[in-house]
Write a structure and sequence with these properties.
The chain is α+β, with helices and mostly antiparallel strands. Helices cover about 35% and strands about 15% of the residues.
Length: about 375
């Protein structure tokens, strides 16, 4: 059964990161024509190799610096039946990349004085009898100990037919804690599902309405959706059944909710990344809080902030996150010291976006001719 995936192993990040030598920051303007041609060749080579090796139907890739596009391209097809060519504007589901949007909404509420991240969740979700030791901060950093609802046997029915927030949260609250709150890291989609409910309770409006009010409209994200996007603008998602690629089951939005329901394209995600790191979504102080490590290592290395995975290359800080949901995988990565960003969207739930992102970064940032872009 397709489900939202937690963080993949960072083995490739560690392996490639040790081999890379990154150049200093360049400007934020688009590269000159000769640079653009070299950049395109490097990115296309890495992307097309990944397409062939992993058997992906389609993919889009964007490289940007402080919101300025350096290179973007679509590869393969967005639909295997119609053979529609993938365009840079094609919309894909982004799965758990949604979590950074949810975390930003929580920080907006803290800025407004409606909550504090060290509040107990029992203050806001009293009816579910969650342990009072669990705080909002613990849910944001996956240190709450809550069982992951995407591992529950009911998930298949919820994905196909939809589910109420109360049903999911009741089921989560009835499961034993994985560990004492605050003592370990364990990725759990239940954390961000519950955070979505807290956002709705405090604002008196739906999670989708909050996204529109605080993120989508202010940033003019014209291709980012909580509901399923228009079919003519979006890719068809696929999975491999052992004999080949078949259309995947689309998740009902209520089952993914604030943990993974968003769809977007590379244009909007570049805009989002740039706005987030430059204080246009939450305040610089809030963003600093979002990028503080939770004190625990995540599988493969690095740590986790608020809806953001944290890592470094040669002491250069990176925020990143990937996502997986029925038919799709996605990943965004941003070097915080330069604003260099890579976004990869794939219409194959079994694909590995980590290796695509890292191979693209290696091809660009390890090149004497191209490293100025990083």
């Amino acid at each position: 059964m397709a489900r939202i995936l937690g963080l993949r192993s960072l083995f490739f990040l560690v392996f490639v990161g040790l081999a890379l030598t990154f150049a200093g920051c360049g400007g934020s303007s688009a590269p000159p024509p000769h640079q653009a041609s070299l950049l395109g060749s490097a990115v296309d080579g890495a992307a097309q190799a990944a397409m062939q090796q992993q058997g992906m139907p389609g993919m889009t890739v964007a490289l940007a610096k402080n919101g300025t596009m350096l290179y973007l391209q679509g590869y393969g097809v967005s639909d295997l039946t119609t053979r529609q060519t993938t365009q840079p504007s094609t919309i894909f589901e982004i799965g758990s990349v949604t979590k950074q949007f949810t975390a930003a909404l929580i920080m907006k509420l803290e800025e407004q004085g409606q909550l504090h991240v060290d509040d107990s969740i029992s203050v806001y979700l009293l009816e579910y009898n969650f342990p009072s030791a669990i705080t909002i901060r613990m849910m944001l950093t996956h240190t709450s100990g809550l069982a992951d609802f995407t591992n529950f046997p009911q998930l298949g029915d919820w994905v196909k037919n939809g589910v109420s927030e109360a049903t999911v949260l009741t089921a989560v609250s009835q499961q034993p804690l994985q560990f004492q709150p605050g003592t370990q890291y364990s990725y759990s989609n239940s954390n961000f599902f519950a955070l979505g409910t807290i956002i709705e309770k405090l604002t008196g409006q739906s999670y989708a309405e909050n996204l529109n009010q605080y993120i989508i409209k202010p940033l003019s994200l014209t291709s980012t959706y909580y509901s399923l996007p228009p079919a003519g603008q979006s890719a068809t998602g696929y999975t491999n059944n052992g004999a080949g690629l078949i259309p995947a089951i689309l998740w009902n939005r209520s089952a993914a909710f604030a943990a993974g329901a968003l769809s977007s394209n590379i244009y909007d995600l570049v805009t989002w990344d740039n706005a987030l790191i430059h204080g246009k979504v939450v305040s610089p102080a809030s963003f600093k809080t979002m990028t503080a490590a939770n004190g625990f290592a995540i599988p493969g290395g690095g740590s986790y902030g608020f809806g953001l995975a944290l890592w470094t290359f040669n002491n250069r800080p990176i925020i990143w996150h990937n996502g997986q949901i029925g038919g799709f995988t996605a990943e965004t990565a941003v070097l915080l010291d330069s604003g260099f960003a890579v976004v990869v969207l794939i219409n194959d739930q079994d694909a590995d976006p980590d290796t695509v992102v890292l191979n693209v970064m290696s091809a660009v940032c390890n090149s004497p001719l191209l490293s100025v872009n990083c």
